[in-house]
Amino acid sequence: MKNKSILLSLLLFPLFTFAESSELTLEKIMSDPSWIGAAPSSAAWLATSDSVVFQQETETAIENLMKVNLSSLSQSKVPIETLHLNHQDELVFNRNKTLAAYVFEGNLFTVDIAINKVTQLTFSSSIENEPMFLNDNRLLFWRDFSAYVFDLNSKTEKELVKLSFEKNLKHQKLKMM
C-alpha cells in the first residue's frame, strides 16, 4: 500500500507544483487544459522496484518515457538507446521472484533482480509474446502460432507446440513437437 501511495504522489506531484502568475478564471481553465501540465500515463514499476517509469506527453505531442528513481526522487527522460532496459511492461516473475521476463519491441528479455542485469534472449523479426516461467525456471513464450520454451541455463529454445488451421474446420490439427 505504501508503494502505491508513493507512486500516486510522484505522478500527481507535477499537477500541484505549477506556478501561475495570473489569476485563474473559468475562461482560462476551459480554454486550454495544457496550462495544468502534461499528465503522466502508463505508469509501471521496474522489476527491481527501485524506479517507476511513465509516459509523458511533451508540448509537441510526442510522448517521452520518464523515469523516477525512488531513492533520490529524481526524474529524468529515458534516452532512446536504453528504452529496452526501462520499458518493462507486463513483467512476469519466476516462482521465487529472482527473475522477471518481459517483451519489448517483439523480443524477449529477462531481468536478474539481485544484480539488476537485463538480458535479451531473442533477436528476431518475429514477435514473441506472453512469456511465462515454468516450475523448472524455463521460460515459455509464443511466437506466431507456436509455443516455445527457452532454457535459461543452456540458452537454447525448443518449439513445443505448433497450431495449424486448415480451411476445412473439421480437420483442425494440433501438432505436438
Explain the overall architecture.
Helices cover 14% and strands 41% of the residues. It is mostly beta strands. It has 2 domains: 1-84, no CATH class; 90-177. The strands form 3 sheets. It has a 5-stranded antiparallel β-sheet, with no helix packed on it. A hairpin with a 5-residue loop joins β5 and β6. Keywords: Signal. This is Dipeptidylpeptidase IV N-terminal domain-containing protein. Residues 1-19 form the signal peptide.
Largest sheet: 5 strands, antiparallel
Number of structural units classed as domains: 2
Multimeric state of these chains? single chain
Rounded to the nearest angstrom, the distance between the terminal CA atoms is 45 Å
Shape: elongated
Strand content: 35-45%
- The side-by-side strand order for the widest beta sheet comes to 9-10-11-12-13
Poorly predicted sequence stretches spanning 5 or more consecutive residues: 15-21
- Spell the H/E element sequence: HHEEEEHEEEEEEEEE
- Radius of gyration, taken over Cα atoms and rounded to an integer in Å: 22 Å
Mean pLDDT: 80
Number of helices: 3
Classify the secondary structure makeup into a structural class: mainly beta
| Amount of helix | 10-25%
